[in-house]
Design brief:
By secondary structure, the chain is α+β, with helices and mostly antiparallel strands. The protein has a single domain, classed as Ribonuclease Z/Hydroxyacylglutathione hydrolase-like (Metallo-beta-lactamase, Chain A), CATH 3.60.15.10. The protein has six helices and 20 strands. The strands form five sheets. It has a seven-stranded mixed beta sheet with strand order 4-5-6-7-8-9-10, covered by helices on one side. The protein has a six-stranded mixed beta sheet with strand order 11-12-13-14-19-20, with helices on one face. A three-stranded antiparallel beta sheet has the order 2-1-3. Helix 5 packs antiparallel against helix 6. The longest helix is centred in the last third of the chain and has 16 residues. InterPro entries: Metallo-B-lactamas, RibonucZ/Hydroxyglut_hydro. It comes from Rossellomorea aquimaris.
Length: about 270
C-alpha cells in the first residue's frame, strides 16, 4: 500500500494499491491540472531520489520557515513558532525526512499543527503523526480533506485560541474556512495566501483563485479586512516567503480599500 502524492498540488492520499485516477483539489477551479497530465509520486520515492531537502531558516526570534527545495507542488513555505514550551507549525509542506525531523526536534518539536486552507494540506497527517501533534483545520473545509484521521481537530466559528497569544481566525475568501494565525507576542500575522503579499511588499491582495486570476467580491474583501483590523500586528508573512516588515496592519487595510475601489471602477479609467 502506498500513500500517493499529487505532484502538482502536493496533497497526500490514503494508502492504496494503485495511483488515484484524479486529484479533486487540482480539478477544482481554484487550482489546475498540469497540462502534461496528472501524475503522482510517494514520499518514500521523493526521499530515495535524493533530490529534495527542506531548508529551515530562523526568520526572527521564535519563528522559523520551512521550504522544500527544489520546489515541489505549489511550493509554499510553512512556519514553526517556537513559543517557550508550545511550538506550532503553521501550514505544511509535503516533504518530510529524518534530517527535518531531527532539526525540528532540536527546536522543541511540534505541539500543534494548523493549516490555512486545503491547498496546503500536503502531507499534514504524516507530520501530525510523526510529531504526535493535533491537527487543526476549519470545519468549513472538511470536504477537501483527502485522508481522514482521529488526530484532526475540526474547529468552528470565527476564532480559536491554541495557546495564550496564538490564535486562529477564519477570514474565508480564498476558501470558506480560510484562516490566518495571529501571534501576538511576536506582533506577527501568518496568512498563507488567504491574504497574499504581492510583488510590491508594501501591499497585499485577495483572490478566489491565484493561478486562474479569479477575484473576490468587494464585499468579501471588506469583511476580511474588518476581521483582522482588531488584531495587533506589525509584520505579515505569506506562504511564499514574502514579508511586510513594518506597519503590516495598515498595509492590509490600505490594500483592501484599493482592491474595493478597483472592483467598483473608482481607482482608474482604462
Amino acid at each position: 500500500m502506498n500513500k500517493y502524492v499529487c505532484t502538482t498540488c502536493g496533497i497526500q492520499y490514503p494508502g492504496s494499491q494503485e495511483e488515484p485516477e484524479r486529484c479533486p483539489i487540482c480539478e477544482e477551479e481554484r487550482q489546475y491540472v498540469n497540462p502534461d497530465g496528472q501524475s503522482f509520486t510517494t514520499l518514500d520515492e521523493m526521499i530515495r531520489s535524493g533530490v529534495y531537502q527542506n531548508t529551515i531558516l530562523q526568520e526572527e526570534p521564535g519563528l522559523y520557515s520551512i521550504t522544500t527545495t527544489p520546489k515541489f507542488g505549489i511550493g509554499q513555505t510553512a512556519y514553526l513558532i517556537t513559543n517557550g514550551r508550545y511550538n506550532v507549525l503553521w501550514d505544511c509542506v509535503t516533504y518530510l525526512d529524518e534530517k527535518t525531523i531531527r532539526t525540528i526536534e532540536e527546536l522543541g518539536g511540534i505541539d500543534a499543527i494548523a493549516v490555512s486552507h486545503p491547498h496546503y494540506y500536503s502531507a499534514q497527517l504524516e507530520w501530525a503523526e510523526r510529531f504526535n501533534a493535533p491537527l487543526y483545520l476549519h470545519r468549513d473545509d472538511r470536504n477537501w480533506v483527502m485522508e481522514q484521521s482521529e488526530g484532526i481537530q475540526f474547529w468552528d466559528g470565527e476564532e480559536l485560541t491554541l495557546k495564550e497569544g496564538i490564535s486562529l481566525h477564519r477570514l474565508g475568501g480564498h476558501f470558506k474556512g480560510g484562516a490566518v494565525l495571529h501571534w501576538s507576542q511576536g506582533g506577527i500575522l501568518l496568512t498563507g495566501d488567504i491574504i497574499q503579499v504581492v510583488a510590491d511588499t508594501d501591499w497585499v491582495s485577495f483572490m478566489y483563485s491565484y493561478p486562474n486570476l479569479i477575484p473576490l467580491p468587494a464585499g468579501k474583501v471588506k469583511e476580511m479586512a474588518e476581521k483582522v483590523e482588531p488584531l495587533s500586528f506589525h509584520k505579515l508573512y505569506n506562504a511564499f516567503h514574502r514579508v511586510i516588515a513594518k506597519d503590516a496592519d495598515q498595509a492590509v487595510q490600505r490594500s483592501a480599500a484599493r482592491y474595493i475601489m478597483a472592483l467598483e471602477g473608482k481607482l482608474f479609467s482604462t
